[in-house]
Amino acid sequence: MSRRYALLDVFTNKPLEGNQLAIVQDCNGLSDEEMQALAREFNLSETVFLLPPENPAHSAKLRIFTPFQELPFAGHPTVGAAVFLSLERFGNDAPEQDSVVVLEETLGTVRCGVVLKQGAAGFAEFDVPSLPRPSAPMGTTESIALCLGIEPTEIGFENHHPTTMTAGNHFAFVPVRDLSVLKMVSPDPSHWEAAFGNLDHNAVYIYCRETETATASFQARMFSNDEQIWEDAATGSAAAAFGGVVHAFDEPLDGTHHFTIEQGFQMGRPSVIDLELDIEGKQIRAQRIGGQAVLIARGELFC
Fold it and tell me: Which residues are responsible for catalysis (predicted)?
């Protein structure tokens, strides 16, 4: 049986930038093992498998796999799938069109607003289904610095210090002094466990306030030690958890706050992630992640 697939670049408005995503359609009948094998075949940070929704009022059910494991939730697959399903519904050449896409993910139901404009990249913004909260402990500043290949004195800025958060996936968050330090980071897997523990989803998000563009709030890099070290060009689930970091250290006042995060610049895959926080009574009441996505290829699988 053949199955259709598409490739998108997510969190960018330009082809061959942002974070790559494979979307496999017509996935009824695929086993978990077959989905995992196809994700390894694509060998991208994530592959999405589209299934009919359990609730007929929803748009689709999503299964999200890295080359090594299934994820309960991920940001760039959510943005990419929402834009793709809207393109499937309205067409590539549709005039300006707003729509709502409701996705069933393992973590929960995710509601996405999508905007399509003729001749432009699609934009999707979704309500984060799980608000950020503190996660598992991490190592000392010295062990973190040793793993990342930087000095302990280069970790931290203002009142920001290393911490962990989850909004579905666990991340260690490490602030560094400036962009020059961020560019120097080179993780050593032999020191990973001492620095960041030994968890199923074990990733570190390194960030600073200095940015490449005047409109951005932070620049970040994300590395994972899931069987091998790899760097991700744009990580929406990390940005969702990062909302808890911003809330903890920057203490935004009540109201809606917008932050733009740069990622992937050191990989030659510049990406831009929008993070929006609603603060009420000094607490996060809601979060949204947004970004653009570009369809770059369609094809057919014969397995």
Answer: 46
